[in-house]
């Protein structure tokens, strides 16, 4: 299909409460949305690298410029048949997976809408209903966390992910484990530690975590392999897996037992599927993560999560947990306890509410 026009929006989406992790405390999520037109049909993509390069080296204002000046011009007027075609045309830019992802996702949504197919089916999903988990950031007190976890467990969530950072660490986790001895729990360190912390990780190793997510540097594989060799708890790589090659190398090095796949972090759904398939062949299980995208980006994540090697509940949440209201419609909602169902309408099933998009846009460009 010929790509006739691309609109790029950089938006700031206010959170209902600050999201606190090892890479900072945020009250607003900065995201980039792309609308891609072919003939009379539009597709939407979204990628949320956030406003500050604290999770990865990318940030929303930079991604906006990369898309506007270097990526979108390579697609306009072109006939693009497959996701691989998109990636080839974007390959002249090194790295910058979040910027590439916004375009790649818009292409997939557009392709699905043109075929009048739900995105999850176009991606090769098996069942539109998937497991989703509960996640908790750093809180005011351990008592607050215990109370919130109690509610989540009572609501039927099958696993809980806890943000972990210096000062909100072993004491917190020990208290949680004491209170919930059988719950499936894992921690996400967002690259806050080094190999000098191996003693702490060996103590965590006794607490029966389902996995330890990204303990070490954001782009590291070797130190993770060294740490993994000293632990029985599987590590999960998030930040470090930015491409198919990184996933292959991580598996080869035995740097982890799990791989988290976020469409944004790996450059889009095309690469997310390739990583999923590689991991499936290698016997490495995966799960889908997110970046607090609006319902457009989250719907893409949900469609991805229908693929068969995603066997741990995804980081996809009801919109109201973060946004009141969500920038995009319809909002993300549970379809059953700890479950969400990918949309059966053509495409990803969501698009921005025009008024909210206008209110939250910091920068917009229309490219033809
Ligand atoms: O590391 O998985 C991450 C959100 C934004 C940026 C990075 C991450 C996350 C999450 C999302 O952990 C899940 C959550 O809401 O806790
Ligand atoms: Mg993570």
Briefly, what is this?
With 368 residues, the protein is of the alpha/beta class. 33% of the residues lie in helices and 21% in strands. The protein has helices at residues 60-71, 83-90, 97-114, 119-122, 142-154, 170-179, 198-204, 222-228, 244-253, 269-282, 295-304, 354-360, and strands at residues 5-21, 24-38, 41-47, 129-131, 134-136, 160-163, 185-188, 212-213, 235-237, 258-261, 286-288, 328-329, 339-341, 351-352, 361-367.
Explain the overall architecture.
The chain has 368 residues and is α/β, with parallel strands linked by helices. The chain folds into two domains: 5-115 and 353-367, Enolase-like, N-terminal domain (Enolase-like, domain 1); 121-341, Enolase-like C-terminal domain (TIM Barrel, Alpha-Beta Barrel), CATH 3.20.20.120. It has helices spanning 60-71, 83-90, 97-114, 119-122, 142-154, 170-179, 198-204, 222-228, 244-253, 269-282, 295-304, 354-360, and strands at residues 5-21, 24-38, 41-47, 129-131, 134-136, 160-163, 185-188, 212-213, 235-237, 258-261, 286-288, 328-329, 339-341, 351-352, 361-367. Strand 8 (212-213), helix 8 (222-228) and strand 9 (235-237) form a beta-alpha-beta unit. The structure holds 2-succinylbenzoate and magnesium ion. Magnesium ion is lined by residues 188, 190, 213-214, 238, 289.
What does the radius of gyration come to? 19 Å
**What order do the strands of the largest sheet run in, or round the barrel if closed?**
5-6-7-8-9-10-11
What is the average per-residue confidence, as pLDDT, rounded to a whole number?
97
Task: Tell me about the largest β-sheet.
Answer: 7 strands, parallel
- In CATH, the homologous superfamily of the largest domain goes by the name Enolase-like C-terminal domain
CATH topology of the largest domain: TIM Barrel
Bound molecules: 2-succinylbenzoate, magnesium ion
Strands, count: 15
Task: Return the CATH class of the largest domain.
Answer: Alpha Beta
From the helix content, strand content and strand pairing, which structural class follows?
alpha/beta
Instruction: Give the CA-based shape.
Output: globular
Helix content: 25-40%
Number of helices, counting only DSSP H or I runs of 4 residues or more = 12
- The portion of residues forming beta strands comes to 15-25%
Detail the poorly predicted runs.
none
Indicate how many domains the architecture comprises: 2
User: Helix and strand succession?
Assistant: EEEHHHHEEHEHEHEHEHEHEHEEEHE
Determine the N-to-C terminus distance. Answer: 15 Å
């Amino acid at each position: 299909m010929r790509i006739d026009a691309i609109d790029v929006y950089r938006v700031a989406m206010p959170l209902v409460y600050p999201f606190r992790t090892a890479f900072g405390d945020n009250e607003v999520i900065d995201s980039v949305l792309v609308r891609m037109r072919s003939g009379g049909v539009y597709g939407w993509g979204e990628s949320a690298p956030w406003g500050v390069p604290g999770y990865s080296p990318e940030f929303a204002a930079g991604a906006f410029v990369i898309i506007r000046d270097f990526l979108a011009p390579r697609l306009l007027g072109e006939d693009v048949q497959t996701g691989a075609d998109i990636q080839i045309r974007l390959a002249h830019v090194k790295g910058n997976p979040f910027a590439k992802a916004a375009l790649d996702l818009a292409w997939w949504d557009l392709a699905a809408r043109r075929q009048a197919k739900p995105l999850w089916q176009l991606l090769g999903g098996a069942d539109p209903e998937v497991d989703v988990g509960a996640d908790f950031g750093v809180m005011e007190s351990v008592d607050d966390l215990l109370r919130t976890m109690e509610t989540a467990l009572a609501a039927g969530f099958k696993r809980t992910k806890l943000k972990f950072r210096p000062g909100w660490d072993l004491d917190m986790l020990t208290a949680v484990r004491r209170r919930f001895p059988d719950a499936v729990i894992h921690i996400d360190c967002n690259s806050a530690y080094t190999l000098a912390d191996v003693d702490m990780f060996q103590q965590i190793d006794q607490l029966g975590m389902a996995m330890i997510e990204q303990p070490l540097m954001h782009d590291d594989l070797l130190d993770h392999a060294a740490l993994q060799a000293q632990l029985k708890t599987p590590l999960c790589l998030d930040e470090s897996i930015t491409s198919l090659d990184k996933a292959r190398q991580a598996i080869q090095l035995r740097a982890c037992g799990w791989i988290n796949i976020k469409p944004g972090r790996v450059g889009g759904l095309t690469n997310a599927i390739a990583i999923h398939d590689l991991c499936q062949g290698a016997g490495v299980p995966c799960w889908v993560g997110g970046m607090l995208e609006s319902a457009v980006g989250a719907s893409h994540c949900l469609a991805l999560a229908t693929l068969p090697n995603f066997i741990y509940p995804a980081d996809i949440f009801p919109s109201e947990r973060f946004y009141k209201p969500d920038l995009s419609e319809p909002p993300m909602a549970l379809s059953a306890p700890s479950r969400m169902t990918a949309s059966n309408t053509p495409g990803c099933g969501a698009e921005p509410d025009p008024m909210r998009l206008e209110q939250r846009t910091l920068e917009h460009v229309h490219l033809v």
